[in-house]
Amino acid sequence: MSSPVTVRVTHRYNLPADKVFDAWLMPAVAARFLFATRTGNIMHCEIEPAVGGQFVVTDRRPVADGDESFFDAQHRGTYIEIDRPKRIVFDFVVEPYTQAPGSNWEWWRARMVGGRTNHWGRISLRFGPDDFKRKSIDGLGDDWPIGYDDIKPYYDKIDKLIGVFGTNENFPNAPDGIFLPPPKPRLHEIMLQRSNAKINIPVIPSRLSILTQKINNTREACFFCAQCGRSCKIYGDFSSSSVLVKPAIATGNVDLVVNAMAREVLTDKNGLATGISYVDKADMQEYQVYGRTVILAASACESARLLLNSKSERFPNGIANSSNVVGKYLHDSTGADMGGILPQLFDRKRYNEDGVGGMHVYTPWWLDNKKDKLDFPRGYHIEYGGGFDMPLYGFNWGIEQLNGSYKVKGKKKEAGGYGASLKEDYRYFFGSHVGMAGRGEAVAMKDSYCELDPNTVDIYGIPVLRFHTKYTDYEIKQAKHMKETFAEILHAMGAVSVWGGDDGPENNYGLHAPGNIIHEAGTIRMGNNPKDSPLNKWAQAHDCKNLFNVDGGMFVSQGDKNITWTILALSMRTSEYIVDQLKKNNI
Predict the structure, then answer these.
(1) What is the three-class DSSP state of 470?
(2) How far apart are CA 226 and CA 472, in angstroms?
(3) Cα–Cα distance for residue pair 511/334, rounded to 1 Å
(4) Residue 82 contacts residue 270 (beta carbons within 8 Å)
(5) CB of 298 within 8 A of CB of 524?
(6) Rounded to an integer, what distance in angstroms lies between the CA atom of residue 57 and that of residue 75?
(7) Residue 224: φ, ψ to 5°
(8) Rounded-to-integer distance, Cα 467 and Cα 99, Å
(9) What is the distance, to the nearest Å, from the Cα of residue 201 to the centroid of all Cα atoms in its chain?
């Protein structure tokens, strides 16, 4: 099974224990809080209060954050232990996944319209020419069947369609684009620009898909509230739900089926894809939809799962998998972090520096792994944070490490504290933090993969994925270089490291587990040879000409960049190809 996560939440009620206990088992009362969300409404609550009994709670929630249309989400579980009035134990595992021994893949899923683009960082980077030809450069992995010139026109179209801010800097492998004006750097970002210049590490305006100027009549320019993570009501930032799905529905040519868990790709006797079979989460019944083409965009792992579950006499190994490569070459961006404080910014003057909901500057990969004789083959970029972020639960966590070490307004205090003194300390240190995160390229390996677990199904009866992943020395040494670079940057700024600086070989230098950065890619990769790639250069299945995949699964490798902008560009390229082939009656 996937690694369990233990969360302890304690809440004390001014009520007798039996009344609190019964509230969890009485449908009328439990419906007020069990699985309730900020934007949803509980529509149905059914409870069978006995060991082995089940509960079903249905809440109606927005299709996407900020949207005015709704769908019903259903939650199910089974009671394992009931000991009134002391203890209730129940399970709630809707979509499990499993791990092979030694594997630690973290699979993040977002079951909503727009998926993970509803809460991503909007970092919108183009791949460079070298990113498509890595095997030719370092001998590892494989080259893509396409190059930068093939995708550049679609990057340009995406830039103009969606909007991205930045500046043209002429970095050979961090291509320029059609940019909107970037926001001004914040104070800590100005300090980064100045200090990094002394150590020859570039800091340039970041490239985020947030509108700094209006580009059409359906979206407004950002007004710098820095709250992109809480849903943008003016659609100033990019989420596919608001920027792509809503306009598509407005054409009247799109039917959107929500609350649907896809089970398999349907085929006819000739091996062509005819549609999708799915389970409706509300009534747990199975339905089918049909079409001339089937296009998968469920995420690299979920699309691979669909293909592997789509078995038939013609495709006994799963559709589009005659190569036996579906699920293989799974990889994610690498990640390691470090942060510190800037004593010169203690007790800062207060002013608004919110800006956009993300960094205003970043560092593209600035070295050459071969020429600079590095002991790892692929690079990384650096993302920065700090300044006057909006205070929220948990901010300045670990303040006892600060107020016990530094004088506050000239006074030495004990670590920790409470009341007015502690509030004074929070204000004193607020805005003095700076943090940085490396996001790098892992080498796609055939022995890093996901497969169907023959012994486990989800609540819908669909076989789940089992992961076989681990990092190589390439990624570990890259993380070590990240940490050394971060320490150099902090020192150049005059900062003092307060977290992430003690990582070493014992924990792979703080390297995040694969999957944690949520840039999963490579499970249904494209290539010219049907024997080692499920897709051709158009993201079209070699084995089934009317089946396509347009998420991160089609990636051969993913560069030292976030993959969303390349997914969008390749999706548009494939869409135009599909239209052309349909007009020619080739599919």
Answers:
(1) coil
(2) 37
(3) 7
(4) no
(5) no
(6) 5
(7) 65, 55
(8) 5
(9) 27
Task: Pick the closest to residue 57 from 40, 35, 79 (CA basis).
Answer: 35
Q: pLDDT tens-digit profile of 397-455? A: 788 889 889 999 999 888 999 999 999 999 999 999 999 999 999 999 999 999 999 98
* Residue 10 burial (CB count, 10 A): 4
Phi then psi dihedrals of residue 495, to 5 deg: -90, 160
Is 290:283 a contact under the CB 8 Å cutoff? no
Q: Are 113 and 245 in contact (CB under 8 A)?
A: yes
| Closest residue by Cα to residue 468 from 3, 95, 99 | 99
335 strand-pairing partners: 439
Place of tokens 């290539």: 527
3-state secondary structure 306-351: HHHHCCCCCCCCCCCCCCCCCCECCECCEEEEEEEECHHHCCCCCC
CA distances from 465 to 96, 99, 108, 284, 456 (A): 8, 8, 13, 21, 8
pLDDT tens for 130-172 read 999 999 999 999 999 999 999 999 999 999 999 999 999 999 9
d(CA 269, CA 288): 17
Q: Which residue has the tokens 């499993």?
A: 98
Task: Please state the φ and ψ torsions of residue 475, each to the nearest 5 degrees.
Answer: -70, -35
For residue 85, say if its preceding peptide bond is cis, omega within 30 degrees of 0.
yes
On whether the CB atoms of residues 127 and 147 are closer than 8 A, the answer is no
pTM score: 0.88
| The amino acid at 582 | L
> Two tokens at 411?
């006074």
Task: Enter the tokens of residue 236.
Answer: 């100033």
Which residues does 495 contact at the CB level (< 8 Å), separation at least 6?
340, 341, 342, 434
CA atoms of 324 and 508, how far apart (whole Å): 32
Sign of CA dihedral 551, 211, 160, 129: negative
pLDDT at 3 over 60: no
Predicted confidence band of residue 6 (pLDDT cuts 50, 70, 90): low
Q: Tokens representing 106? A: 């973290």
Cα–Cα distance, 432 to 394 (Å, whole number): 16
CB 145 within 8 A of CB 132: no
Cβ-count burial 44-68 (b if 16+ within 10 Å, e if not): ebebebeeeeebebbbebbbbbbbe
